[in-house]
Design goal:
The complex is a heterodimer of chains A (104) and B (281).
Chain A lengths: L2 E6 L4 E7 L7 H12 L4 E8 L5 H16 L3 E5 L3 H9 L2 H5 L6
Chain B lengths: L18 H21 L4 E2 L3 E8 L7 E7 L5 E8 L3 H21 L3 H18 L4 E9 L4 E7 L5 E3 L6 E3 L19 E4 L5 E5 L15 H12 L4 H16 L8 E8 L13 E2 L1
Antiparallel strand pairs in B: 1-12, 2-11, 3-4, 4-5, 5-6, 6-9, 7-8, 7-10, 10-11
Helix pairs in contact in B: 2-3, 4-5
The chains are: A alpha/beta (104), B alpha+beta (281).
Chain lengths: 104, 281
């Protein structure tokens, strides 16, 4: 189960620290709580430091979050991705899909 | 009281199930039967080798997909895929994927063309549904013993050499998952297979299978199992892999579907003509 905490930074940026596995059980939290909470910022950084596992549903949720926020004019960055998770991101070519500059 | 098709009376019957529970249960079972019959269809029989595939859903119904399609030139087209998500929604998209594969296989010349055509056909639907499918497609040519494959974000198959103690991933080839980006062009890569070689296609549900301590089965265990059983026929290797996973997970509930497809080259290369189309058993 995933949890998240938010902290406002300068320039209308919100920093979101995710904690836990990003999988199918995260669907409601991500779509109903996290996504609406980020819509009114200029930019959002998703910190993946405490996310040990992302499955294909989690990957879909992530793509959905980034693409939905982009449509609303929110610039999204993804940071501190663990090596194991990065491996899956690379396999699915998530950086190519979201744009390589999404990852910091 | 007015009732439409969506209204159910919550009345418990003798076995404690409401009418809605019973209807749902019945419909899920019917859906599972449809899926299992479509998945476990005919396996092609051909000279010079054998193929086999199996899939075990994590829930009642799954989102993994594999298929064989015999081509008129004697080649066999193999596909394995993993639809994002689980359960009924994934199963619905799996059926969509199957339809796209079957019609693309008929009209495309290579695995890469098949993936390009499938992405073309499915991209808009998958974006609307916020989903995607990873796929690996391969053509086995029994005449030249060549395996040609293309990849859309799927994990690479394992190549088990018949005459050496070596299990390794097939040479890497990249490609965006189907539904990821529009207008993708995929690339083919070919390798030459030899007598007794086996290629093991699979979905990540195998290496991510978990036991009660949340440890994963991992690639190392899979490689070990394949190495130990490589001399067996495809059906037996399949059973050994399944047994090894079951022994490791000790009945812990799984998060993802488990699917594998095996292609094994026979000991002696049979003489075949290019007009010899594979038969469906």
């Amino acid at each position: 189960m995933i949890e998240f905490s938010m902290k406002e930074a300068e320039g209308g940026t919100i920093i979101v620290r995710l904690n836990g596995d990003l999988d199918i059980d995260s669907t409601e939290i991500v779509e109903e709580t996290l996504l609406p909470a980020l819509e009114n910022y200029k930019a959002a950084t998703l910190n993946f430091e405490e996310v040990p596992f992302v499955d294909s549903s989690g990957m879909g949720l992530l793509l959905n979050v980034v693409q939905s926020l982009k449509e609303k004019g929110v610039h999204v960055m993804i940071s501190n991705v663990k090596e194991e998770v990065q491996f899956v991101f690379e396999l699915l070519q998530i950086p190519e899909i979201l744009g390589k500059d999404t990852f910091i | 009281m007015y009732k439409d098709g969506m209204t159910y009376v919550h009345q418990k019957n003798s076995d404690g199930l409401t009418i809605m529970d019973k209807t749902l249960k019945r419909e899920i079972n019917l859906a599972r039967n449809i899926q299992s019959q479509l998945l476990n269809g005919k396996t092609p029989v051909f000279d010079g080798g054998e193929v086999s595939g199996s899939s075990v859903p994590a829930r009642l119904i799954g989102g993994d997909y594999y298929d064989f399609y015999p081509l008129v030139n004697g080649k066999i087209r193999i596909v394995i895929g993993d639809v994002m998500g689980k359960g009924i929604p994934a199963a619905m998209l799996m059926i969509l994927t199957r339809g796209a594969f079957r019609s693309a296989a008929e009209t495309t010349k290579s695995p890469a063309d098949t993936l390009t055509s499938m992405n073309q056909a499915l991209y808009a639907d998958l974006r609307t549904l916020k989903s995607f499918v990873t796929l690996l497609c391969a053509d086995w040519d029994p005449e030249t013993s060549t395996l040609t494959y293309a990849n859309a974000g799927h994990n690479l198959p394992l190549y088990i050499k018949g005459k050496e103690q070596v299990v390794q991933e097939l040479p890497k080839i990249k490609g965006i998952m189907v539904g990821g980006l529009p207008n993708q062009v995929y690339n083919n890569h070919s390798i030459q297979l030899h007598d007794k070689d086996t290629v093991f296609f699979y979905t990540d549900g195998i290496i991510e299978a978990q036991n009660h301590n949340k440890e994963q089965y991992k690639l190392e265990r899979l490689v070990q199992t394949l190495m130990e059983n490589k001399q067996k026929c495809v059906g037996d290797i399949e059973k050994c892999v399944m047994e090894s996973i079951e022994k490791f997970t000790e009945g812990a509930p799984q998060r993802d579907d488990i699917t594998m497809v095996l292609l094994k080259i026979s000991d002696q290369k049979a003489e075949i003509t290019s007009l010899n189309s594979p038969l469906m058993k």
